[in-house]
Amino acid sequence: MRQSELFTKTLKDDPKDEVSVNAKLLTRGGFVYKNSAGVYTFLPLGWRVIQKIAQIIREEMNAIGGVELFMPALVEKKYLDASGRWDVPIGFDVKGKKEKNPGFALGWTHEEVLTEIASKYVSSYQDLPFAAYQFQTKFRNEPRAKSGLLRGREFMMKDLYSFHESEEDLSRYYEEVKKAYLKIINRCGLKAIYTTAAGGDFTVSNTHEFQVEAEAGEDEVILCRLCNFAENKEISKEKAGGKCPKCKAGVLEKINAIEVGNIFPLGTKYSEAFNLKFKEKSGESKYVVMGSYGIGVGRVMGTIVEVWNDEKGIVWPDSVAPADVHLLMIGGQEKELQKAADDTYNKLVKAGVDVLYDDRGTSAGEKLFDADLIGIPLRVVISEKTMVQEKVEVKERSKKEVKLMKVEELIKSLK
Amino acid sequence: MRQSELFTKTLKDDPKDEVSVNAKLLTRGGFVYKNSAGVYTFLPLGWRVIQKIAQIIREEMNAIGGVELFMPALVEKKYLDASGRWDVPIGFDVKGKKEKNPGFALGWTHEEVLTEIASKYVSSYQDLPFAAYQFQTKFRNEPRAKSGLLRGREFMMKDLYSFHESEEDLSRYYEEVKKAYLKIINRCGLKAIYTTAAGGDFTVSNTHEFQVEAEAGEDEVILCRLCNFAENKEISKEKAGGKCPKCKAGVLEKINAIEVGNIFPLGTKYSEAFNLKFKEKSGESKYVVMGSYGIGVGRVMGTIVEVWNDEKGIVWPDSVAPADVHLLMIGGQEKELQKAADDTYNKLVKAGVDVLYDDRGTSAGEKLFDADLIGIPLRVVISEKTMVQEKVEVKERSKKEVKLMKVEELIKSLK
Q1: How far is A414 from B104, CA to CA, in rounded Å?
Q2: In CATH, which superfamily holds the domain spanning B3-310?
Q3: What's B307-375 look like in SS3?
Q4: Left, alpha or beta for B365 (phi > 0: left; psi -120 to 50: alpha)?
């Protein structure tokens, strides 16, 4: 992609209305635009990151047998009345211009909708187990939406729901999802702490969170770095400085963390509400046992920025970067240099490299400054100086050293 | 994909609450599920079709220089106040549980949001032209949502907006989009009639619609089949039976049609509302000239079903089918047959063929009935009879003849 075709621009100064690191850097880099508190547009560069994260999640969901579907955002009152969740304070009401009472809520999670759908198709043990997921914009009326992508009122989530014959089968699948989530978060360049948390409204068992250590995190986790024992402080009986109750060796710490995902054993709460039953082999009729599993796609993006940045800007992990290579043409507007830069761009694209090409007529200083801010893993400069040697200058965003190499060598090194 | 992993099932009977052909067939085939009037879930098979249509659109939008982004569904009141569209009857209001007055509408189109964003980045003629698009769920409070995917209250749309220095440059791009739209609709297996329509609220010029001839169409078009003159009946001065005013040779017909896309020259209406100006080379300050262009992704899907069906079910065009091949294992539960069917499935998948594999333990009749209903272009049967010949039985959904061939031959023929 040519940078001149992007309509967005980087900003020199931090936006005045943002306090979080992720919102500041993502706004300055031209990744997001704030339309309202907690409501963001994903600009072209930002949307590329979201799509890369979503693709990683999709691959891992498919690998554990999830089938993708797409449910509506408009959730009719009857669904939430059935589960008793119509009146939760984070819900947004929707009504037509001339209607007196709202007929819909904006879905903030979709247990009700999918359980009702499942009740139309599931009748026998042969129909179980199955798991279905979607990527969807969710809505929550958050009173404090000040953390950029970490806590939005509108945000993209991947939500997976699983349906089982028994608690045992749910437990088996819960472990599979746990592994898939750890893999996803790892592939996104983050390290997840698997944390035991409160049971929440709809389950007696504990739920589990995938927490990423970060100063900006609103959650507090009691952690043993030796054996990975971790409990959300809200439920933990342990204290920082104490001995780990699991390995009896480590010393517990209290850390700040961002919850990027969570998984819930739901039991039969929703299958009872929607009469989702199945016939066992024996003929006995039973309620389906369910689990639900969420990852905030935008929140993963915000967390990556919170963790991967330096004083100059963002330092994207390869797997989720908006491009593999940031190609900068540096120097005057000489035709020869422009041609060499265009040729290099075409060669890279032809070799299947995802390139952001800074072909703008701006100064060297501005281009280098922007490249650091935008944070693409590999910066490739072509200038008069490199051109006479028929080479390009290559620098990793996370390192200081600079190398001169032929484009062919660069392409080879990327494979 | 194995059919046994889908949690959905086909239905024997038409749903009682649907009148349109597309809703009946898509519901029976397990492509969609109606949650509320005009509000549908795309089940796994249906979501595959949506993704294929979206990918065709994406490729053609990128080919004309569009950059993809993603704007919010929550559109704050200030945006629609600025353009005077807060009170339009099709708008849905959104409010928090404890709020008295709605602070947001659900976006049914995004001229306001993108114009405001553009006003933060565009300052010079050098920043123009550009075009940005998104795939997004839109919301319209339709009073009569009875046509399945043809008229939803919640529906997926691709909306593109373009920004220009002058009316001339807009006209140039408008022609490019027109060609891209005709190509998209053609690639989806449909034939578009480029139709002149009313100017609408926000433009003095005419707008243009992409109409597809279909009995179920709610629009009426005055058409000359000789020279493709076409006007929406709402604005046409011509009558059916009259002579074509353009070629002076054809006889005009009045046909029913479905509007799958439309394009609007917007002039400076929104750039004036959001003070989106740019400096010309001469230094003069001018309002940006805009265009907007929409295609209903779900509506394209519904239209395809209205056009491509027979008494047995849907007949998907290759380009948008939920899979290339529907592989049916027919016969008993013999291990040898199961193994042969599994082998065939694995061979096809390995060769990059997109297969729906009916591995269920149901009867031959049921499987053949379902295959016709679901409508995948190629049906491949493996049974005791074909197995002894080391072949499979291949039938195109749209034809009657049946061929026996080796799997290797089949794979070759698909390339």
Answers
A1: 46
A2: Bira Bifunctional Protein; Domain 2 (3.30.930.10)
A3: HCEECCEECCCHHHCCCCEEEEEECCCCHHHHHHHHHHHHHHHHCCCCEEEECCCCCHHHHHHHHHHHC
A4: alpha
Whether residue A196 lies within 8 A of chain B, CB to CB, comes out as no
CATH number of A323-414: 3.40.50.800
- From chain A, the residues in CB contact with B137 under 8 A are 72-73, 137
pLDDT score recorded for residue A332 = 73
Angle at A192 between CA A189 and CA A198, to 5 degrees: 150
Cβ contacts of residue A271 below 8 Å, gap of 6+? Answer: A115, A119, A277, A287, A288, A289, A290
Q: Is the Cβ–Cβ distance between A245 and A239 less than 8 Å?
A: no
Residue A9 forms contact with B (CB below 8 Å): yes
Structure tokens at A282: 């024996």
Residue range A279-307, pLDDT digits in tens: 999 999 999 999 999 999 999 999 999 99
pLDDT in tens, B198-234: 876 655 678 999 999 999 999 999 999 999 999 999 9
A70 with B41: Cβ contact below 8 A: yes
Helices (H), A269-334: 269-273, 297-307
Query: Which chain B residue shows the shortest CA-CA distance from A66?
Result: B5
CA–CA separation, B6 and B29 (whole Å)? 12
The alpha-carbon gap from A67 to the nearest alpha carbon of chain B, in Å, equals: 6
Q: How far apart are CA B214 and CA A266, in angstroms?
A: 46
- To which residue do tokens 């009316």 refer? B167
Q: What is the DSSP letter of A245?
A: T
- Domain boundaries in chain B? 3-310, 323-414
> Could you give the count of Cα atoms lying within 13 Å of B74 in the half-sphere of its Cβ?
30
Q: pLDDT for B32-42, tens place per residue?
A: 999 999 999 99
**pLDDT the model gives residue B347:** 96
Q: What percent of chain B has pLDDT over 70?
A: 99
Q: Note whether B261 and B210 are within 8 A (CB).
A: yes
DSSP 8-state symbol, A244: P
| Residue B234 CA: distances (Å) to CA of B178, B219, B221, B240 | 21, 9, 8, 13
Residue A65: its chain B contacts at CB < 8 A? Answer: 5
Summarize pLDDT for B354-368 with one digit per residue, the tens: 999 999 989 999 999
Ranges of chain A with pLDDT below 50: none
How large is the average pLDDT for residues B71-82? Answer: 98
State how far the Cα of B109 lies from the Cα of B90, in Å rounded to an integer: 11
Question: For position B146, what pLDDT does the model report?
Answer: 85
